[in-house]
Write a structure and sequence with these properties.
The complex is a heterotrimer of chains A (382), B (227) and C (388).
Chain A lengths: L1 H10 L3 H28 L1 H4 L5 E6 L7 E2 L2 H6 L4 E9 L13 E4 L3 H4 L3 E2 L2 H9 L3 E5 H7 L6 E6 L4 E13 L9 E4 H10 L6 E2 L1 E6 L5 H11 L7 E5 H11 L1 H32 L1 H10 L3 H37 L10 H28 L2 H6 L3
Parallel strand pairs in A: 4-9, 6-8
Antiparallel strand pairs in A: 1-11, 1-12, 2-10, 3-4, 3-11, 5-8, 6-9, 7-8
Chain B lengths: L5 E12 L2 E13 L4 E5 L6 H9 L6 E6 L2 E2 L5 H11 E4 L11 H10 L5 H14 L15 H13 L5 E5 L7 H18 L2 E5 L3 H5 L3 E6 L2 E2 L4
Parallel strand pairs in B: 3-8, 3-9, 6-7, 7-8
Antiparallel strand pairs in B: 1-2, 1-4, 4-5, 9-10
Chain C lengths: L4 H10 L1 H33 L6 E6 L12 H7 L15 E12 L6 E9 L1 H5 L5 E5 L8 E5 H6 L8 E4 L2 E10 L8 E5 H7 L7 E5 L6 H10 L5 E5 H7 L2 H36 L1 H10 L3 H29 L4 E5 L6 E5 L4 H27 L3 H6 L2
Parallel strand pairs in C: 3-8, 5-7
Antiparallel strand pairs in C: 1-9, 1-10, 2-3, 2-9, 4-7, 5-8, 6-7, 11-12
Helix pairs in contact in C: 1-11, 2-8, 2-9, 2-11, 2-12, 9-12, 11-12
């Protein structure tokens, strides 16, 4: 169609200008996509939570212990199927930048986490060895750990150098499950603490497995009621709420990242609006000529809008196409986030941004061109 | 005497420039008949281009009546005026005003896009018109590949391809050398004599004006030689 | 003879819309750049500025934060007898035995609570930290369930005005005063009586000790003495170093994120500047031809367009910097990754940051305008004049 032909020809009239604009758009859309993916990655832990697990911890803060004696009482409560213990160990492997999570857990911990799979032989080997530990597949791959290796870990919360023997490597039941942590025996931690005459029988959090998801809230309330006014009051919440609590600690940073991702769109909008305005102004006499011949204001508006859409579509598509490889690259180079995947929602948002920029950048030039008085336009020098 | 093609009665037009109202045309009364080749002459600021613009329907008068083929074009709305122009007026400008991204063929085709003609029908007309102006071999060239004279010939082709009632030309030879100018004027004379086209031309060049059948003088917005 | 500056400036003014949009894009990038630098400076000021030069902190070996650390009462008594410690006016050693715990408090307007440091201090604790000044109410009375809160806590969290009660460790604690700790980390803490807090949290050991050195150079000797003593498992750090180390991860994160973002953004803005300058050149081709015909040289033309690009950068830079300066009225608080506690800090604009920011902006303009300026300089006079 004629309109399309003219749009195409006009868009590539100034090849350098169009190239620069498309590049700028691609960079902006890519940056936006990466930033949104960073925000998503932060929430990944909450996304992996299960509705069948509750987390019970001290009502004062996560840094305060709960007595080990609570376990039996929690297990006896209605709706509770299984209770496991978990203490954050927080040790250092060789140097701080090799950080990975380590948990001292009760022997039944894996029963609560069916999403991690372990061969029967390895499970049995771990249960037999009190200094044994299990490592996730991603962790093992990263450092080249193998079953039988001895891992020295320097404790920070629990002082001294601890040695664990790897007895098994667990995988995620589905691809995309994060397996970058280490599990060892809570009993081993506890007896070591007791021997050193330090605080013993202190649990970090209880993981509570329930049957009926709908009664999760009621069970949580019951657990906390049980321990109210005792020496160690508890706070029980769903695993997802627990994970979101961590995210909320950095919520200002996350908000800042979100804001910045929109700033980049604003920057490119300024560039695009400028390009469209310049191009339209340079062609004023052409628009006037077309009008004189009999083409209407709507035709001219569509001409400019079409050009803007075309350029933004090219830049947007390029940016979107680059996002996936860029995310993969970022994940290997800067392994801060165990999960770093570009979601479909992000891709959709990128497309929407490109569209929004196209429309917004074209509004003023399109309106001007539609309204230009023929006699003024003919007199205009580009 | 056949019915006038263009009837102008007491036409007036002023512009507002920086808050001031500047009258450009006052009380113009004029007839143009089918087959006329009229030159509008006058010093700069005389209002000749404004008058041309009004007749061509690309500007609206402040007062007076302007009828073309019986239709009061001053009363038409903007969309109707655009449609009217598409079928009734052909334009020739001083700086050719060709669309740089379209070939000679496509530039000439422009007015036909607005009609309901099929692609084949348009092609036929364009090729015909381009051969009339002697540029059949340059159809696929872009304006920047053509000389000034050739570009103006493409513009003329564009002006006549739709078989309009009226052809308006604003300083058609203003940007051309003497030889090309003579060439263009000769072509316009042929269009007038052989194809019976009514042409109104604005010019400040007496030589160009002499190519026309009638010369009308304007000064300070008024006709010096009433029709 | 050089092309006058007024010619350059007027050209920018004539095409106001284009100038505004291009400078606007540059300003946004500059704003992000400056804000990140200011945030990091604010973080550094808070953590580097926390503590006194002559104060030393004793924590358990291997612990990275006071929360992870423990010093038994016996160890504390041994430590406080060391001769290198200064004595106060009452001839007692200037030592504060402290307990540090995290409690959950809700920020004003937030749904989820944050972790806040609560520090049990002794009477000397305040004396050891002259940068902490009580600005409202009074200090807590020893033996009472009373607390004083830092300025950032009073401003940012629910329920922390004088007279409010916070409930934790099974007691109600009354807020009796507010202190101002400048921009140091202490401003994000709550302080109470060390004995009361240890009782409430049922602790038998202190978290850390703060000592004032009589002679700042005797730190190494003190360290050697501690290492030699089998009863002690503590290490010593200068107070300032200790707190600044605790911000390293957060600071690195902010810097890396900020720098990456700014680099990417600057590409977009420079492309914008390039587009604008190319258009400026192509629109003024005949003008350039005229100037050259008049006698101006290629170098003059190059410089004129470079100056135009620099001016664009300058305008964008000043606008972005002005907007960033406004951020000084905002405060930023987030959980410090290393201590796991909420830390509040501000955006700090130093003359150095202002200079860096403007330089960055000028460079963006220069890089964006270089190729177009080169094109303008390389035009042939005859072609340029013909292209009217």
């Amino acid at each position: 169609m004629f309109l399309l032909k003219l749009v195409l020809r006009n868009a590539f009239r100034h090849r350098l200008r169009t190239f620069l604009t498309v590049t700028g758009l691609a960079v902006a859309v890519l940056a936006y996509g990466m930033l949104q993916t960073v925000v998503d990655a932060w929430y990944a832990g909450a996304a992996a939570a299960s509705a069948t697990r509750l987390v019970t911890r001290s009502a004062i803060s996560l840094a305060v212990w709960l007595p080990a004696s609570y376990e039996a009482r929690i297990r006896g409560m209605e709706g509770v199927k299984r209770v496991a213990r978990s203490n954050w160990f927080g040790g250092v492997y060789q140097e701080p930048k090799n950080f990975f999570p380590q948990f001292a857990v009760s022997d039944n911990y894996l029963d609560l986490y069916p999403e991690f799979v372990l061969t029967e032989a390895e499970r049995a080997a771990w249960l037999r060895d009190r200094k044994g530990c299990l490592v996730g597949r991603q962790l093992a791959d990263k450092f080249g750990f193998k079953v039988g290796d001895v891992l020295p870990i320097r404790g920070t919360i629990y002082p001294g150098t601890w040695e664990f023997v790897i007895r098994g490597v667990f995988d995620g039941a589905e691809p995309g499950k994060v397996t970058n942590h280490l599990l060892f025996h809570w009993d081993y931690l506890n007896e070591t603490m007791r021997k050193a005459k330090r605080r013993a029988d202190a649990v970090g959090v209880y993981i509570v497995g329930i049957d009926d998801i709908d009664s999760a809230a009621a069970i949580a309330v019951n657990i906390d009621a049980e321990f109210r006014n005792s020496l160690a009051e508890t706070l029980t919440e769903s695993e997802q709420a627990f994970q979101l609590g961590f995210v909320a600690m950095s919520d200002q940073i996350i908000a800042a990242i979100r804001i910045v991702s929109y700033v980049v769109i604003l920057i490119i909008l300024a560039v695009m609006a400028n390009t469209m305005a310049m191009s339209a102004r340079e062609r004023t006499s052409e628009y006037a000529t077309l009008k004189a011949i009999g083409f209407g204001p709507r035709f001219l508006a569509l001409l400019i809008l079409g050009e803007s859409l075309l350029i933004c579509a090219l830049g947007g598509a390029l940016g979107m196409a680059l996002t996936l490889p860029a995310a993969a690259f970022f994940k290997t180079v800067a392994a801060i986030f165990p999960i770093f995947a570009v979601s479909g929602g992000t891709l959709l948002a990128q497309a929407a941004c490109a569209l929004a920029v196209a429309l917004t950048a074209a509004i003023v030039p399109a309106a001007r061109a539609a309204r230009v008085r023929i006699v003024d336009g003919l007199r205009a020098i580009a | 005497m056949p019915e006038p093609l263009v009837e102008i009665r007491h036409l007036a037009k002023s512009y507002t420039r920086g808050g001031q109202v500047v009258p450009v045309l006052s009380d113009i009364t004029l007839d143009i008949h089918p087959g006329d080749f009229t030159a509008l002459m006058g010093p700069s600021g005389s209002g000749k281009t404004t008058l041309l613009n009004l007749i061509a329907g690309i500007d609206k008068p402040d007062a007076g009546v302007l009828r073309v083929e019986g239709v009061d074009i001053g009363a038409l709305g903007e969309r109707e005026l655009a449609d009217w122009r598409a079928t009734h007026v052909g334009f020739i400008f001083q700086f050719y005003n060709l669309i740089p991204v379209l070939t000679a063929f496509e530039n000439v085709e422009l007015p036909l896009i607005l009609t309901g003609l099929s692609r084949a029908e348009r092609r036929e007309r364009v090729e015909l018109t381009l051969s009339v102006v002697g540029l059949a071999d340059r159809m696929k060239h872009y304006p920047n590949e053509l000389s000034g004279g050739q570009q103006q010939r493409v513009a003329i082709a564009r002006a006549v391809v739709g078989d309009p009632t009226l052809i308006v030309a604003d300083e058609p030879t203003g940007d051309l050398d003497r030889v090309s100018a003579a060439d263009i004027l000769a072509m316009m004379q042929r269009l007038n004599r052989e194809l019976g086209k009514t042409i109104i031309m604005v010019t400040h060049d007496l030589n160009a004006a002499k190519a026309a059948k009638t010369i009308i003088h304007l000064e300070k917005g008024e006709l010096l030689v009433p029709a | 003879m050089a092309i006058p500056l007024s010619y350059v400036a007027r050209n920018l003014w004539t095409r106001r819309l284009t100038t505004t949009l291009t400078a606007g894009g540059l300003a946004l990038v500059v704003f992000v750049f400056a804000t990140v630098l200011m945030l990091d400076a604010g973080l550094k000021r808070t953590l580097v500025g926390t503590g006194e030069h002559d104060n030393v902190i004793a924590i358990r070996k291997g612990a990275e934060t006071e929360i992870q650390s423990g010093i038994t009462r016996i160890q504390a008594s041994v430590i406080e007898t060391h001769p290198a410690i200064a004595t106060g006016p009452d001839s007692r050693p200037l030592v504060s035995k402290e307990t540090v715990v995290l409690i959950s408090l809700r920020k004003a307007g937030a749904q989820k609570p944050s972790n806040v440091i609560i520090r049990g201090v002794s009477a000397t604790g305040l004396a050891l930290r002259p940068q902490v000044k009580l600005v409202a109410g009074r200090m807590f009375s020893p033996g009472a369930s009373e607390i004083v809160v830092g300025g950032a806590i009073a401003r940012g969290f629910d329920n922390t005005r004088i007279g409010d009660k916070l409930n934790f460790a099974q007691r109600d604690w009354t807020v009796v005063g507010t202190f101002d700790a400048g921009s140091s980390g202490f401003d994000s803490e709550i302080w109470g009586d060390v004995d009361q807090l240890m009782q409430a949290f049922r602790r038998t050991a202190f978290s850390s000790m703060v000592l004032r050195l009589a002679d700042s150079d005797r730190l190494d000797q003190m360290r050697a003495d501690f290492d030699a003593d089998p009863r002690l498992t503590s290490e010593l750090k200068r107070e300032r170093t200790f707190y600044s180390d605790q911000s390293r991860a957060l600071s690195t994160f902010i810097n890396v994120l900020g720098l990456t973002l700014t680099t990417v953004f600057s590409i977009g803005a420079m492309l914008g500047a390039m587009i604008t300058m190319y258009a400026a050149v192509s629109n003024r081709v005949s003008e350039i031809g005229t100037l050259r015909a008049l006698g101006f040289r290629r170098a003059n033309v190059l410089v004129a367009f470079l100056v135009e690009a620099l001016l664009l950068g300058l305008v964008g830079g000043l606008a972005g910097l002005a907007a960033a300066a406004l951020m000084q009225f905002a405060s930023f608080s987030t959980t410090n990754f290393q201590t796991f506690a909420d830390l509040s800090f501000r955006f700090v604009l130093t003359p150095q940051i202002a200079a860096q920011t403007l330089a960055f902006s000028l460079v963006m303009g220069l890089v964006g305008g270089f190729l177009p300026a080169l094109r303008a300089a390389r035009l042939e006079i005859v072609e340029a004049l013909r292209a009217a």
